[in-house]
Amino acid sequence: MTKSIKAYGLLGILIILAGAGIAVTVKADVGVGPWDAMSLTFSYLTGLKIGTLGIIFNFICLIGQKILLGKDFKNSSIWQIVVSILLGIAINFFAYTAFKNLVFPNYIIRLTASITSTVFLAAVIGAIVVLGITSFALEGFCSAVHRKTGIPFGKFRQWVDFFCVTVSIILTFIFSLKWSLREGTIISMLLFGPLMGIFMPKIEKMFEKWGIVDGKSELEKEIEEME
Question: How far apart are CA 159 and CA 15, in angstroms?
Fold first, then answer.
């Protein structure tokens, strides 16, 4: 099996696992991360599935990249929408089919499930970044903004989180929706980034031993340069 086949196969598995992890945080019902919270809030509002809305929002991010970058837009970035579609399908499958009847008996177990999923997702998303095949559409959009405006990647990514939180709060109040922002959201914001920083070097060494990556991927280097 060639390196590229192994890498793309592993990417598919990791995306499916990410979908499962996100679905668990939704089922735990103690709040999800800002980006997922906006999708979940619109899901409550429109009746569309959260994964479907995620695909739509990611597609908007891809269009934003095309507009910002123009001729500098790489055709390989289309992989972002492939990843977005697969992730959205995985989230819908686990949230509405595989885990449809999943019920956590009490608050402590729900909170524990949410924290465990956050740790799990940090490792999975970190592994996807280490593979370096493609970025997520949201991160690609933030990167495009950085390249065109000079706004630091990390700062703009925080602004996006703030925007998602603001939109979720406004819609929840106006339409009296169920809250998608709770204590789990705060925990996710505090733990996710630092945990990715811990997991990624270890995952990179593991992937090097497996012959999947050779040193830092181009995507990792790009992220480091933007920080």
Answer: 25
226 confidence band (pLDDT: 50, 70, 90): very low
Q: Are 71 and 147 in contact (CB under 8 A)?
A: no
DSSP state of 215: S
* Contact residues for 47 (Cβ-Cβ < 8 A; gap 6+): none
- What is the structure's pLDDT at 221? 53
Residue numbers of the domain that contains 162: 3-226
Q: Is 111 within 8 Å of 28 (Cβ atoms)? A: yes
Q: Which one-letter DSSP state was computed for residue 94?
A: I
Residue from 163, 183, 201, 196 nearest 113 by CA: 183
For 89, the token pair is: 């399908």
**CA separation for the pair 202, 221 (Å, rounded):** 16
pTM: 0.88
Q: Count of domains in the chain?
A: 1
User: What distance in Å separates the CA atoms of residue 133 and residue 6, rounded to the nearest whole number?
Assistant: 12
Give the per-residue pLDDT at 119: 96
